[in-house]
Specification:
heterodimer; A: 145 residues; alpha/beta; 7-stranded mixed beta sheet; 7 strands; 19% strand; globular; B: 219 residues; Rossmann fold; Alpha-Beta Plaits; 6-stranded parallel beta sheet; 7 helices; 11 strands
Chain lengths: 145, 219
């Protein structure tokens, strides 16, 4: 698959490295060059410095040919904007976004945005140890209906 | 009208101020408490501290009964999310987003935002009006209806110079509203001519813009 990843933080770098290891063509975009130091030395994909909420940057990264797009920056709003562009403007088949804020995740689920909320997943993981009977979602991944 | 202004920067501040002076009910949502305090000291208690992209904050601001939510922070992505949350969660009336990147105008529209305003585009259009060009300069787009107001400068090569308006084959959904000749506006009748050097202000639709350009500029 051709995969574009926005954000080379810890999670982005890990996802990119493992996808590259699995044989996919990965392009990872970040605002700063030094973020790419987090990638595995064996990473075989492409890196690109740029702001992936900018449609020109996405085009240069090959979004028109992408099979998948993941938005994994620190900012919920940037993630949500880029992934909607990928999904609704470029029709990328598989799009997944990180959204920290559970309320925002709910709202964007209504708009068909598939997302991962580390807040929800993390809280659930703690609850599973502290008190499995306490209220919680079974999974942190909210898919569109 | 009840208007929520998201973002208490310079744009938000003056927008809130103008709207309040016009008699509308306004709430400005500003994230930074020190800035919010400054706004409050100038405009009174129409400011609220919070992140306007958060549903709880919009709810507290009254998004459910807002006629208009204007997201005017400095970041396009924040303005997009604010408008989307307002619309999807609270069914607020109309959403307007300020954008910096002109390319986001079409993107935001496709994502459900009612209107966008780009300062970049406004400045560009002012600049274009100063430069003689062989094309139609868009002055204003009425986005909901696809109607545009455009300006054409009649120069060398234009087939219409010296012709009466009634004799010019204008495309459908287009008309000539005003001619500026030597700085004087003329509201022309069908028998009036267009002259070399005229600035023609016309109404047209986006689909007919190219045909209007051909008709007036002899392309």
């Amino acid at each position: 698959m051709n995969i574009i990843i926005m954000g080379c933080g810890r999670v982005g770098a890990r996802v990119a490295s493992q996808l590259s290891q699995a044989g996919h063509d990965v392009t990872i975009i970040d605002l700063v060059e030094r973020a790419f130091r987090r990638l595995d030395p064996e990473f075989k994909g492409a890196t690109m410095v740029g702001n992936a909420i900018d449609v020109d940057v996405l085009r240069r990264a090959g979004i028109e040919r992408a099979d998948a797009f993941a938005a994994i920056t620190q900012g919920d709003n940037r993630n949500v904007m880029a992934s909607q562009i990928a999904q609704h403007i470029f029709g990328v088949p598989k799009v997944v976004t990180r959204i920290y804020d559970p309320l925002r995740q709910e709202t964007f689920e209504l708009l068909g945005v598939q997302s991962i909320s580390p807040t929800v997943i993390g809280a659930d993981a703690f609850l599973a140890i502290l008190d499995p009977t306490a209220e919680g979602q079974p999974s942190g991944s909210k898919e569109s209906a | 009208m009840f208007v929520i202004v998201a973002g208490g920067g310079k744009v938000g501040f003056y927008l809130g101020k103008e709207l309040a002076e016009q008699g509308h009910e306004v709430v400005i949502i500003e994230q930074e408490s020190r800035r919010a305090a400054e706004i409050e000291s100038e405009l009174g208690s129409l400011v609220m501290v919070g992140d306007a992209a958060e549903a709880t904050v919009l709810r507290e601001a009254g998004a459910e009964r807002a006629d208009l939510v204007a997201a005017v922070t400095g970041d396009d992505e924040d303005n997009l999310v604010i408008c989307q949350v307002a619309k999807v969660r609270f069914h607020s009336g109309r959403t307007i987003a300020r954008i910096n990147n002109p390319k986001n105008a079409e993107i935001f529209q496709r994502l459900g935002i009612d209107d966008t305003v780009s300062a970049t585009d406004v400045v560009l259009s002012v600049i274009e009006q100063e430069i003689p060009r062989q094309h139609l300069v868009p002055l204003l787009r009425l986005r909901n209806t696809d109607v545009e107001i455009v300006e054409a400068v009649i120069r060398e090569g234009s087939a219409v110079a010296g012709h009466r308006i009634r004799d010019i084959a204008l495309p459908s959904s287009s008309n000539i509203a005003v001619i500026i000749r030597d700085g004087t506006p003329i509201f022309p009748k069908a028998d009036d001519p267009i002259l070399f050097g005229d600035h023609v202000i016309a109404f047209t639709t986006r689909e007919n813009e190219a045909r209007l350009r051909s008709a007036l500029l002899g392309d």
